[in-house]
Write a structure and sequence with these properties.
With about 140 residues, the protein is an all-alpha fold. The chain is built from three helices and no strands. The two termini are about 65 Å apart.
Length: about 140
């Protein structure tokens, strides 16, 4: 049986090998350059702003320069410097959140019609045996 399997495998592989057709490789298109539109005040703009600030500092204290509102990565300068009054709210304090269930509700027990113990529970007669071995059939 194993020999038949190996023979069949050899025949199948040889038939695929001899039927293979080789041709010219297909040329793929060159990947296109993607242009990303970044945030305003990107690295190019920030370097120009820095050069302008240095030129103004050399010429004299004419007008104080304002810091950009965004850094080169697009993050708020206020967030990176740790200034108070950030525009992002972190939400309410989780300790002060409440659920729709009242605190006064205690643990509920399931409603059962009969107060008879289960078969594997200890027998209520106090013998120490399981209920199914002691008093299950009596009644």
């Amino acid at each position: 049986m194993f020999v038949d399997l190996m023979t069949d495998l050899r025949q199948t592989l040889s038939s695929y090998f001899f039927r293979a057709q080789f041709g010219q490789p297909q040329h793929r298109k060159a990947p296109q350059q993607m242009v990303f539109s970044g945030p305003r005040g990107g690295p190019l703009h920030s370097s120009l702003a820095d050069e302008a600030a240095m030129a103004a500092a050399r010429s004299g204290p004419a007008v104080p320069t304002r810091r950009p509102k965004e850094d080169p990565l697009g993050m708020s300068v206020r967030a990176t410097t740790g200034q108070s009054g950030s525009s992002v709210s972190l939400g309410p304090d989780p300790k002060q959140l409440s659920t729709n269930r009242g605190e006064e509700q205690g643990r509920r027990e399931p409603v059962s019609v009969e107060k008879e113990p289960g078969r594997n529970d200890p027998c209520p007669c106090g013998s120490g045996k399981k209920y199914k071995k002691c008093c299950y059939g009596r009644s």
